[in-house]
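Run log, item B.
One chain of 211 residues. Sequence copied directly from the ordering sheet:
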Amino acid sequence: MSGLLMPKADDATMSRRSDIVTALRAIVPGEGVVDATNAMRVFESDALTAYRQLPLVVVLPQTVAQVSRVLKYCYENNVKVVPRGSGTSLSGGALPLEDAVLLVMSRFNQILEIDYPNRVAVVQPGVTNLGITKAVEHEGFYYAPDPSSQIACSIGGNVAENSGGVHCLKYGLTANNVLGLEMVLITGEVVRLGGKHLDTEGYDLLGLMTG
């Protein structure tokens, strides 16, 4: 039994669970919504397994449009959201809340582009850290930030936690190796920060969102 005191679940949200699940199934059909207790057990903690909490429901979207619609629905209906990558964090970063939707990004697992001349890769957030290195090592490249969980941890989680590793002594943390992000705000709006260039004008919003 964990000694961690979790926030008290919102009774109004819990009473609407069935309606919330139904609405989310309309957005992410098929097996993209998991609400059975036994099926949600695998998502009840991150790698810090001393702390466990079943979420309200688990959603596994496959498209940016689905992510946008899920977040917009939750925003408009006052439902909390906790994002999750591979769940390898030791900081509790993906620890669910009883009254929150757990938004799992593991289905976004494609490398979209590799630009060798500019040393840039465009990847989805569910791609594993080591997966990037495996995709480019035949050309003599590798992705520098290398946490101990690199075989399983996702790039989206690395960005959320500003992950590091032994190579970071030379090449910096995740924040020093990310040029741009596409992200979805809680309102459902899709925004882009940075791009295939080293610096942008104005405030460092990219750095703010990394870690």
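Observations after the first pass:
- Strands lie at 33-34, 57-59, 80-84, 100-104, 111-115, 120-123, 180-184, 190-194.
- The chain is about 25% helix and 15% strand.
Flagged for discussion on Thursday.
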